[in-house]
Amino acid sequence: MAAEQESDRFQTSVDYVKTPVCNVCDTSGLKITQVNQKTTVWPRSLARTWTLMLLLVTCLLYWSRMAMPICAVTMAKEFGWSKSETGIVLGAFFWGYCFTQVLGGHASDRIGGERVLLLSTSSWAVMTAITPLLANIGLRPLVTMTATRFLLGVMQGVHYPSLVSICAQRVTEGERGLLMSTLACGCYLGMMLVGGVGSLMLDWFGWGSVFYGAGLLGVCWTFCVWKYLLQGPSLSLDSLWISSSSTSESSKVNWLNLLREPSVWAMIIAHLCFSSTYYTLMSWLPTFFKDMFPYAKDWVFNVIPWFVALPTSLFGGSISDHLVRQGCGTATVRKLMQFFAMGVASVFIFLLCKTDNFIHAVACVSVAVGLSTFNNSGVSVNVHDQAPSCAGALFGVMNTCSAFTGLLLVYMSGYMIEVTGSWVNVFSVLAAVNVIGVTVFIALGEAKRVDQPQIISTSC
């Protein structure tokens, strides 16, 4: 019987790769189990559980992030903020968001993205829940809300680098596209949730309830993950110290050699172009519809594109993983997904400014947003292909740069709209940026591993 059980465990080693351990003693003489920092792939049942939990926390993250924009008008009236002061409060998030991307990714590569995500979620959940209280502590609400918004960006900045690191460490190549596409649905669900439920809570219970709801649900998520998924030796102080101080693959990466690779720069450029275009499109679409179709219902163009994004994101992830498992070249699959996400989507972005029919405009936006979700199984997964040992840190670098370039393109688009009064120039620039990014990626992109980590000895 024992032999049969051992055979069964060996048969499932494809799903779960166990890491070798060695015992060391600390200065107090206590015995500590040290775990090498090698990739440990989740078994399928655990992968499904984590996928659900990561989807939920991404949804709650966007509820927390969008709570302030949803309540901005009501809060501005209550506290007497001008348009520029409201803009200062809202914009503070993105400046904080840039600060922890690389740090969060590096920490996730070193000690595990699950731990970093748990710490991050607990911190931004508490910050969100106490936001209404901080608005009335005696200081000027403009100061406290700006500082709160900045700190929220700092705390949430590690979220996506942690997800990328988790995907690289815990999921096999043929399943990464679907995982990242599924987790991206959390963004779309969060946008719809805060837009629907959040708006009702704002009307019925006041703006504070929107923050309390997101914060308390985030705390509940943290408790559930700690209690049922991470409790035990993996969260002890001893194991955290050993994991963070031990030599890992990510610490052996030669970043100078990594950044000399044309394929890495092709991935970075494509990510910058895509993210900048996406940020700008999402920032100015409500204004575009208000200018062009002033009598249209807001919920139509604020909700329909996100409903379209849900199935297209899952379809893109499923088809990309299917193609990889069928033997198609991984680089070819990544380029194909990115071609639809940036190249084909640009056609519909450009057509958006050529129609004066509301239904046609909503259709163009919905198709463009739907196709853009293919990026989740394109460039977003390519970082796992090329640098799995430092995927979190590298994605943090990419996301930090794209946040700055995105803000720049948003401001430039606003300037063009104000000076020319035409949306044609704005959408033409966005389409051109997308075409440049996807052209570089198709020409120079690869899916081979280029981080070349050194082999770490497993002996004590």
TrEMBL record:
Places the protein is found: Cytoplasmic vesicle, Secretory vesicle, Chromaffin granule membrane; Lysosome membrane
Listed GO MF terms: purine nucleotide uniporter activity
BP terms from Gene Ontology: ATP export; purine-containing compound transmembrane transport
Main location: membrane
Membrane topology: Multi-pass membrane protein
Annotated keywords: Cytoplasmic vesicle, Lysosome, Membrane, Transmembrane, Transmembrane helix, Transport
Record carries keyword Membrane: yes
Gene Ontology CC: one annotated term: lysosomal membrane
Transmembrane segment boundaries: 52-75, 87-104, 116-135, 178-198, 204-226, 264-284, 304-324, 336-352, 358-379, 391-411, 423-444
Catalytic activity annotation: ADP(in) = ADP(out); GTP(in) = GTP(out); ATP(in) = ATP(out)
Pfam families: MFS_1 (PF07690)
Domain Major facilitator superfamily (MFS) profile span(s) in chain numbering: 50-449
Keyword Ribosomal protein in record: no
Task performed by this protein: Voltage-gated ATP nucleotide uniporter that can also transport the purine nucleotides ADP and GTP. Uses the membrane potential as the driving force to control ATP accumulation in lysosomes and secretory vesicles. By controlling ATP storage in lysosomes, regulates ATP-dependent proteins of these organelles. Also indirectly regulates the exocytosis of ATP through its import into lysosomes in astrocytes and secretory vesicles such as adrenal chromaffin granules, mucin granules and synaptic vesicles.
UniProt-listed PANTHER family: SOLUTE CARRIER FAMILY 17, VOLTAGE-GATED PURINE NUCLEOTIDE UNIPORTER SLC17A9
Similarity comment: family membership: Belongs to the major facilitator superfamily. Sodium/anion cotransporter family.
Protein name per Swiss-Prot or TrEMBL: Voltage-gated purine nucleotide uniporter SLC17A9
